[in-house]
Protein 1
Amino acid sequence: MSEEEAGDRWRHAFAALGERATPGPECPEPDRLWAAAAGESPPAERHEIILHTASCSSCAAAFRLARGLAAGEAVPLPSASRLRWVRWSAPLAALAAALILAVLAPAGWWKPNLPYRGGDTLEIRSQLPDGTVLPRARADLQWTGGPAGSLYEVRVLTRDGREIAVEAGLGAPRYRIPPAALSGLRSGSVLYWQVRAVLPDGRTLVSKTFSARLE
Amino acid sequence: MEPQSDLQSTRPDSRADDYAELRRELVDAVRVLCPHWLASRAEDLVQVALVKIFELRRRSEQERELSAFYLKRVAYSALVDEIRRLERRRESPLENEDGEPLPLASPIPGPERQQASRELGEGIRDCLSGLIRPRKLAVTLYLQGVSAAEAARLLDWELKHTRNLVYRGLGDLRRCLEEKGLQP
């Protein structure tokens, strides 16, 4: 039997353990499995989850499911006929961009390293280091910027999908969550945040959902 | 200055398309990636997940759009919760809500092959527990069908280092299985 055949046989046998799997009390929440499989959680957290899947067939199957669903989520620039979020009219966007740039461009906010991943694919990425814990008084979110003149809308949600903060028309790729919005949340709560960029030509781009923990 | 929306008239259709697409993707994923005994329940499982999304959408203020990726993540969480619920129920009564026996593992491979596969799988799991941590991480991802490049990214290691650990870890695994009398 070749190594490749043996590898396939081992993978099959390992996956087949899931047929009789039972989750235990120590199994991580599905959200943590997803974050690990999608590479969103900090490396140390990913290691813990992967080690757990070595001995828990139920979570191993859930991990494979997450990988299958999360794979290939490049965010293509939507065509003009299929924008999913609010679209600004081009003249309005241009006017707003001009005003914002006139006031703010000297501050040097703009990041020149645009994260292009392909011919027509642009991605908004979180600029927060892995494992960031957000202080309540300075819960600052940051992300990679789009072309000069882009405007951003950021939304912050709790794990149960409750929207606690939203801000539109941001000219810089950063946002401070108002402390008042965090007042009802427990320490250690996970926040999910997402950015929508409106590019100068009127197209929109939606980021993946990022997560951060509250102090 | 308020943003103008021109999606008002088209939103319901595109949202219905999104749900149909998401439903298809979830059902396919359950059928392909989940244990065989869940395949026949894929539609029901996905429906539970979609109900969760509808509730989330209903609570969302001002009908704001949620990204497809976020919806998928929410659906995944609901899906895994439901699968776990079924797995726990399956352990004791082994029957569905109508009192009918739940299907066990797929009959396709045949009982002897199933038994051999199960023994090999349990042997692999035992042997994995004995590997040193870095090799265990690398080999676990290998067994999960993760490529070396993707494993390197997930583990935050250099690709060469990851490949080396997979190679050495598989060697350890092979020796361990042989010691257990299992044909690698």
Protein 2
Amino acid sequence: MNFSSEIAEPVTGTADPVLRLSGITKTFPGVRALSGVELALYPGQVTALVGENGAGKSTLVKILTGIYQPDEGSIVVDGAEARFPTATAAAHAGVTAIHQETVLFDDLSVAENIFLGHAPRGRFGLIDWTRMYADATEILTRIGARLDARTPLRELGIASKHLVAIARALSIEARVVVMDEPTAALSQAEIEELYDLVDRLKAEGKAILFISHKFDEIFRIADRYTIFRDGEMVDAGMIGDITENALVEKMVGRSVDTIFPERIRAVGEEILTVAGYSHPTEFADINFKLRRGEILGFYGLVGAGRSEFMQALFGVTKPSKGAVRIDGKVAVIRSPAEAVARGIVYVPEDRGKQGAITAMPIFQNVTLPSLSRTSRSGFLNMAEEFALARTYTERLELRAAALDQDVGELSGGNQQKVVIAKWLATKPKVIILDEPTKGIDVGSKAAVHAFMAELAAEGLSVIMVSSEIPEILGMSDRVIVMREGRIAAEFDRDGLTPEKLVRAAAGYEESAA
Amino acid sequence: MSQADTLSARRIPDRLNGTGARFLKSWELLLFGIAVLIFLANTQASPYFLDPWNLSDATFNFTEKAMVAFAMALLIISGEIDLSVAGIIALASTAMGWALQYGIGTPGLICIGLTVGLLCGAFNGVLVTRLGLPSIVVTIGTMSLFRGISYIVLGDQAFNGYPESFAWLGRGYVFWVISFELVLFLAFALVYGVILHFTNFGRHIFTIGNNATAATFSGIRVERVKMILFLLTGLMSGIAAVCLTARLGSTRPSIASAWELEIVTMVALGGVSILGGSGSILGVVIAALVMGMVTFGLGLLNVPGIVMLIFIGALLIGVIALPRLIALVRTGKA
Amino acid sequence: MILRLLKSREGILLAALLALLVLVESRFSGFAAPGNLAAVFNDTSILIILALGQTLVILTRCIDLSVASNLALTGMVTAMLNAAFPGIPVVVLIAIAVALGTLLGAFNGILVWKLGIPPIVVTLGTLTIYRGMVFLLSNGSWVNSHEMSAAYKAFPRAVFLGLPVLSWIALIVIAGFAIGVTRTPLGRAFYAVGGNPHAAVYTGIDVGGTRFAAFTISGALAGLCGYLWVSRYAVAYVDVAGGFELDVVAACVIGGISIAGGMGTVGGAVLGALFLGVIKNALPVAGISPFWQLAISGAAIIIAVAFNARGSRKPGRIILKSAERTA
């Protein structure tokens, strides 16, 4: 218990690790998520874990926090072998994690979200609410979050929820703190406060595992790095011994600048106009125009309201005001069915929940919105369905055993191809791609990019929502940046730099506020 | 998975497994085997079982319930449920009995029965699709409401004196031992089988049951499909009310009590996933035969009705539990 | 504070309950007299106890439709034991009732937990199985008042500090729930599991185990009510409390326990049960046939669920700064 006070003074790299993972392997049906990875976390040091989406980082976090059990390998805490069969066991061993907002409880108060599972107890072992509110307020103040501990969580925005997640992690007497993209949804001012917090935790002798996609951030606060690629540990060492380019190259496994296809800009007449689109809580005052054959990028932090706006444009949610014109004519879109009928289609970010119907065969997924064309007076025609599905899946170079295979059996990249094929079969005018390459392998990623360029060249207009700066810079003709539900800036491709994007997305101007 | 990745991208075959191979592993075939076994057991239980008229009598045990079960199967595949079907039958029957007091003839009675069924279905449908309420609670509520109205109208009384032409709908024979109800049952089996398995609408039902969000995101009008399914379930309950009232020749507020349970059991036994997304009408047809024969067989052995309910309750849990239990034991040993 | 109470579901429900009492009192003077209200509470006690057990189950996103059958079976067992062996003390009979009820509830729970069968299917099945077992046990015959011992019948009616023991039991259960649900880790786990099962796993809460606990507690209370019901009405037969599970669910839904899980309070469930209790007791006073009761329960469920859903419609994510509530 007094362990943390013994090592309160800053420690050098020669100390023994608090926690060491070795030979960790985890297999899911059809996928080997981790194969024999190593990871060591040292007291008073920040270890950055880098890797592309799908490299196995989140699986590792789940093993560290007792959600998953490794198939092979050992976890050693303070030199002794440990097992984390439940999340509680991991917490008892002093491992805590800052997860994304999705692992909190909307119906419970801020204080209870922080203390659920380890609430302060009073007489007869009953939960002491007065102390819980006081303790919660104290932790919130410590991390600089101006939140009322009694507020129900559902009344908070995404950034505030993230602060609650951080407070929860700190409410446990921990020696190892896992931070899974902790700055993804924070504004610049909040990020600075988080860096201060990390420094304080380091000074307290805590070992920190810091997962991030932002390289400037990694080089600023990390002491060590570990790189994962395709479920394997590629490299590890001191951050001072590696350059940013070397880090990226090891992460991707090849040189970076060849990924994006060459495009000739051939933008035609105006096809879509959005004016004054607003929603009571999600976005406000969205105005833009889209032209034939154009790729329009939408950049912003996680939770900036991009997906929410796109879903309103696609008719899933209703805007409170605003108008859409397609080919100059006013279009009222109240449902996805109406959007599809008017030539707007949407490839969602959440493939498993909103995109693919995983328990149904490939051909049925592809023909779903086009059934009226493949059928006669409402009766199915399998031969035509297979023909239509074949045309589009082969064009996208889908890899599958058969067209009647369930989509759930395919890899993430191939599932994405099925969803895109489904929409191309409807011959749309505008295709909205929401994080089109999130969580898919490098090969499929390049294929999706190449295909996107091909579609634009054929005259299809593309809206691409992406949080990856290279993708935004590599693919877009024009970029709109959203922040906190509003358009923060609009840039032309020429002369656009990553700095300009980050500045607009994080709201640097307001960092003093 | 890995095999799929290494295959050539150029030419993907349509189908991996033959239809025959899939049928051999299907729930329907297993269920059919059970049906045959129960049939054989029944022939051993009573020498009178094989008499054509006895067999024909046996069909009345399931025809009315199965008609509702077909529509219920579609509704459950789409991810909803209607527990008010027996309440609808009671209300529709009460409405017909009430109209009878004003001298309405057979065609009028049929119209009233079907209309009340449709209206009840519409009421459920509006509450679920327009107000976005969970169907399980809504239909627990309407189940009491519909039957409650019958109790308000009838109390401990009953409506009697249905005309002969009306009674034919429940007791009449079309040809030899083939009853009107049996013909209706077979016709509806065919109609619902075609709707579910061979139309765009049927494909939409499966899609919604598998993933309603993705269905919405694919441009399917989910609420409209569900509304139609609630209407169909109400209509089929109305038809069942006509047949049952005609067969019994009287209406009491307790008519068709606990049928919702037997109908849901029939659907689940037929291999329809209670969580939605999969199932077949063929399975429901065989399940209807199994349940009808079990009831009839136990009847031949003079087993009282409430004990049959135990059997049906155990069947409901058993058919769903057994495959999961086997899987649990298997993974436990592995 | 008062404003918050007025805006909460419980506040609205309390106002509706008071309005109902005023309405009945204005037509039939004497209904709202303290003595009569105590009688109404006593009459509603069993519904309150069952509604509280059901509340836990519904909080975890499940439903228990087998409570009335559980009640009938345990009630019949205690009645038959009492008739056969009048010497068994009442306390032992109550213990047997609670133990048997717990077992029946645990059976539901284990099917939901270990086999992952949807709760509605499990409890629809056990609803008929438990009810059928009453028939098998009793062979369809009744246990009548004259076959029961005096002590067996007297216990729930015995008056203690001005209230019958039945009312006291309900009050104790209410108090136990009020503390247990708000101030114990298990109580909070019911909310967590129903509110966000995925997040509950990350918090180290065993989702299946918590559901099992809810079903077991609901079963135990149904067992307790089995004895209370049979001794109070001094008769046991197959159809005891037939369809009462609907009243129990109705009380919860009226009390604002969200069927989607994770939302609801002990106070709400109690008020929901009292609301139904007042209606049931006001009907004969108003000269309305008891045949109306089923339809009124049904209508009450529908109105309540529609009303509750209106308040909890998903308002969308909060992204705009102006929409957020902070300190």
